UniProtKB/TrEMBL annotation:
<dbReference type="InterPro" id="IPR036291">
    <property type="entry name" value="NAD(P)-bd_dom_sf"/>
</dbReference>
<dbReference type="Pfam" id="PF03807">
    <property type="entry name" value="F420_oxidored"/>
</dbReference>
<keyword id="KW-0560">Oxidoreductase</keyword>
<feature type="domain" description="Pyrroline-5-carboxylate reductase catalytic N-terminal">
    <location>
        <begin position="3"/>
        <end position="92"/>
    </location>
</feature>
<dbReference type="InterPro" id="IPR051267">
    <property type="entry name" value="STEAP_metalloreductase"/>
</dbReference>
<protein>
    <submittedName>
        <fullName>NAD(P)-binding domain-containing protein</fullName>
    </submittedName>
</protein>
<dbReference type="GO" id="GO:0016491">
    <property type="term" value="F:oxidoreductase activity"/>
</dbReference>
<dbReference type="InterPro" id="IPR028939">
    <property type="entry name" value="P5C_Rdtase_cat_N"/>
</dbReference>
Amino acid sequence: MNVGILGTGGMAAALGGAWTRAGHRVLIGGRNHERAKLTAESIGAAAHGSLEDAARHGDAVLVAVPAAAAPQLVSDLAGPLAGRTVIDCTNPIVATSDGLLLDEPMAGRLAAAAGGAHVVKAFNLCHVSIWTLHRPAFENVPLAVPYCADHPAAAAVTETLISSIGCTPAACGGLARAAYLEATAALAIGLWWSGGQPRAMFPPMGQVA
Ligand SMILES: NC(=O)c1ccc[n+]([C@@H]2O[C@H](COP(=O)([O-])OP(=O)(O)OC[C@H]3O[C@@H](n4cnc5c(N)ncnc54)[C@H](OP(=O)(O)O)[C@@H]3O)[C@@H](O)[C@H]2O)c1
């Protein structure tokens, strides 16, 4: 599959590297040509270019820029993104004295900003380091990757990208539920930072009466 990535930072390199190893043709797109080139070379990506090049390249396009920059960027690229699967991994989270809080939910904003694109929320829960692992699995269970999508074809594209890196897709409903994934990230990241173990909170199926 052709995958365009908007951004040249940690998530672009980690997920772009995983998809490149899985055989996808990844184009790293950045506003800084040299950084796009360096990131693409560091992961052996097929190509690099501008943000618009990435938008035009992808059957799927990953938005891997800070949440604060994402709506304007997606709006600017609405033309080239039309009809494509746009995967939003951003976490619109703000640190406060009361812990991490959610800013305005993002996925719906991106869907409105992009107009004709098929926005999917996915890959926002795990730290960047997890996506650098080969086929991430914990306690012998492949990592489940939850996603929210409205459009069936975009859901199928996302499932392919998740499965191809050895993870298990977990369909969590339509984009109206994407804010729950964002809220889950705010909660889990706070727990991880404080030394807690979010994984320990959920009993395995079969133990639930
Ligand atoms: N890091 C994590 O563990 C993690 C986990 C899950 C989700 N996320 C989400 O993933 C997204 C990317 O995180 P990251 O860790 O990869 O960030 P990062 O390493 O700081 O990279 C951010 C990228 O966004 C680009 N950028 C910033 N403002 C931009 C703008 N206005 N227009 C175009 N490009 C812009 C930067 O380009 P320049 O180099 O030119 O500034 C850089 O390439 C964030 O929304 C974050 O919430 C991160």
